[in-house]
Amino acid sequence: MYTEQAWIYKRAALSPTKIALIDSGTDEQWSYQMLTEHISKWIHYFQQKNYQKGDRVVVISQNRIELFAIIFACGVTGLLYVPLNFRLSKVELTYILEDCQPVLIIHDEAHQVLCESFIHVERLLVTTKLESASFFYPPETNWSPSDGWIIIYTGGTTGKPKGVELSFDAVNWNAINTITSWGLSDTDCTLNYMPMFHTGGLNALCIPILMCGGTVVVGSRFHAEEALKALNTYKTTLSLFVPTMYQAMLDTTYIKTATFPTVKVFLSGGAPCPHTIYKQFEDKGILFKEGYGLTEAGPNNFFIDPQDARIKRGSVGKCMLFNEVKIVNENGKLCRTNEVGELYILGKHVFTKYWNNEEETNRSFVDGWLKTGDLAKVDEDGYYYIVGRKKEMIISGGENVYPQEVEQCLVLHPNVREAAVIGVTDEKWGECVTAFVSCLAVNDSFEKELLQSCKQVLGSYKVPKKIYILDELPRTDVGKIDKKRLQELAVKI
Question: How far apart are CA 201 and CA 207, in angstroms?
Answer without folding.
Answer: 9
